[in-house]
Amino acid sequence: MDFSNDIADKKNEFRLYAKNELKKLSSQFDKNTRSMMATVNFTDSLLYRASNSIFTFISKTTEINTQFLIEKAFLDGKDVAVPRVNGKSLDFYYLSKEESLDKQLEPAAFGIKEPLTTLEKVDTHHLPIDSVFILPGLAFSPDGTRLGYGKGFYDTFISHIYEHVSPLYYPKALVGFCFNCQVFENLPQDEHDVPLTHIITEEKVISC
User: Fold this and answer.
1) Which of 185, 181, 188 is nearest to 38 (CA)?
2) pLDDT tens-digit map of 43-53
3) What is the pTM of this model?
4) CB–CB of 113/107 below 8 Å?
5) Which residues pair with 147 in a beta bridge?
6) What range does the domain containing 190 cover?
7) Which pLDDT score is estimated for 5?
8) Euclidean distance between CA atoms 46 and 184, whole angstroms
9) What confidence category does residue 4 fall into, taking pLDDT thresholds of 50, 70 and 90?
10) CA max distance for the chain
11) Do 208 and 196 touch, CB atoms closer than 8 A?
12) In a domain, 143, yes or no
């Protein structure tokens, strides 16, 4: 692949390439099968077993399906929180184990669903101990680089935690959750990009 020398242009070109790779996945059934395999890879890991709370995203149809992970976490008695856009950053809300997932979400921008504001909001200055953050993205590399959709919501949120929250409440791990076709050997990065600790796909678990 012959990419531009400008970092911003390189990022956009990799995003486009990753989108094209995602289009090659044959069907929603194929995506769901791969999503379940990735979920098993994560939930079989010590990282998952040692966690008390899972902060994850609500997936779009083009992304790896996080519903299997959410349902498994509920079965295992873990707390699950999902994001809602607030200006240029994110708020997280705990999902209830007693209600169906669909009843706790509403349509929002960017083709995703967000949690209702009537749910319990997470105090981001006192995150649960041993929490794991599951981050979306278009492209990932084994050194922990993540290319999101260009809005910067997650980088802003995680940076805020590391700058303003006690290390006692730092996330236990930052995990990129994606299809294997979204993992590239190298990706362009800026100094403000927050590196991941792990990447999990339907084929493997990568420690960054």
Assistant:
1) 181
2) 999 999 999 99
3) 0.91
4) yes
5) 139
6) 7-207
7) 57
8) 25
9) very low
10) 51
11) yes
12) yes
